[in-house]
Structures are given as structure tokens and as C-alpha cells.
């Protein structure tokens, strides 16, 4: 299992901390060591799974396909006003990333990064209607050459650190990593009106594997 670079330092410090705790327990109360060691191991594995980064290639690189940018469950499909960049209605698809999902974010399309902006904000639960505009978030727009796709990484009640690796003017490739949200949250996609969707509300999706939509 590959570990994402975002988690390596935290996991190393956590391992050292848990090892020190076990050593102290062994010194002060050796009879309690098995219980503490098992609890420490379970806790370490729980945190470890947050940072797993499975290798995934898109089944088919295609300009008209929009792949899921994250693992999770589709919680919103609706026509919505996008106030930051388009300032017009778009088709919104939101994917909620639970703590058990892979937290890597991947480019749903290939193209040129036209816009990238980080916004500090609140930490409402990710499914709150106002989380898209009031929570800590990063907004990215990718120009495919035919249309523009907006991606928004949104922090939630637990996820309080968004990482985004893209820069304006950068050419990105469909399927490559573009960011990471520690401990899960939500990713919004804003697509052109009339886009043909390939997912339904409540459907579980996988980054680089599930086709979200087909562009006209």
C-alpha cells in the first residue's frame, strides 16, 4: 500500500509517540502493556488508512469524459448558481468523502489551469448547504479547450487542512493527483448546463474509475 506524502511526517511522529507511550507503560505497569500495545496498533492503523494512495489509471483518457475527482458518495446533483468564477448557473455534482475513503484528489479532465484560489473559512459539516461558500475551500478551474470545469475542495468538521498542488497556467493531465484533504470532506464539480450525467444521488464513486459525466 502506497502512503501519500502528506501523511508521512504525521505517521512517523505518531509511531514515535505511541512507542514512547508503550515504553513508559512497560516501565511503570508492565501488566497493562498488551492492552496499550493493541490499542496503539489499532489507532495507528486507523490513521494510516487515511493516507493510503492506491495507484489508479483512468480506464480511457478522453476529452469528453469527466472522471470522479475523489472517492466517496454523490450527495448533491442540482442546477446551482456558482458565485465565485462563472457567476452563472451550472450543474453541480458534490462528492462527500467519509473518513474511510481515499482522500487523494485527482484531475477529472485534462487541460489548462485558468484559476486557483484558496479561501479561509468555517468548518461546518461537509453536507451543510452553506459549506460550499462558507467553509475553508480551494477553487480550481480547468479549461479543457472546449469548456471550463470548476472543482472546489471543501473542508469539513474534521478536515481542517486542504492541500492543492496546481498553479494557474499549468497544464494538467486527466487522472493525475491535484490535491489532498486530510481526514475527508467534500469535492464539488461545476459542469456546463446540459452535461450528460452518468451518476445518481447516493451512488458511491471512485476517483479515476467512475465516470461522472460526458461533455458535449
Write out key terms for the chains shown.
2 domains; alpha+beta; elongated; single chain; eight-stranded antiparallel β-sheet; Glucose Permease (Domain IIA); 3 helices; 216 residues; three-stranded antiparallel β-sheet
Helix and strand topology:
Layout: H1 5-28, H2 33-50, E1 65-67, E2 72-82, E3 88-96, E4 104-106, E5 111-119, H3 131-134, E6 137-143, E7 148-154, E8 162-164, E9 171-172, E10 177-181, E11 186-191, E12 196-197, E13 204-205, E14 211-214
Antiparallel strand pairs: 1-14, 2-3, 2-13, 3-11, 4-10, 5-6, 5-9, 6-7, 7-11, 8-10, 12-14
Helix pairs in contact: 1-2
Function: Catalyzes the formation of phosphatidylethanolamine (PtdEtn) from phosphatidylserine (PtdSer).
Site (Cleavage (non-hydrolytic)): 184-185
Subunit structure: Heterodimer of a large membrane-associated beta subunit and a small pyruvoyl-containing alpha subunit.
At a glance:
This protein has about 220 residues and is of the alpha+beta class.
Overall tally of domains: 2
> Any idea of the CATH topology of the largest domain?
Glucose Permease (Domain IIA)
* Element string (H = helix, E = strand): HHEEEEEHEEEEEEEEE
Nearest-angstrom radius of gyration? 19 Å
Biggest sheet details: 8 strands, antiparallel
Kindly report the average pLDDT value.
86
Tell me what you see in this structure.
By secondary structure, this protein is α+β, with helices and mostly antiparallel strands. It folds into 2 domains: 52 residues; 150 residues, Glucose Permease (Domain IIA) (Distorted Sandwich). Helices cover 21% and strands 34% of the residues. It has 3 helices and 14 strands. The strands form 3 sheets. The protein has an 8-stranded antiparallel sheet. Strand 2 and strand 3 form a beta hairpin. The longest helix is centred in the N-terminal third of the chain and has 24 residues. The radius of gyration is 19 Å and the shape is elongated. The relative contact order is 0.21. Keywords: Cell membrane, Decarboxylase, Lipid biosynthesis, Lipid metabolism, Lyase, Membrane, Phospholipid biosynthesis, Phospholipid metabolism, Pyruvate, Transmembrane, Transmembrane helix, Zymogen. It is a peripheral membrane protein.
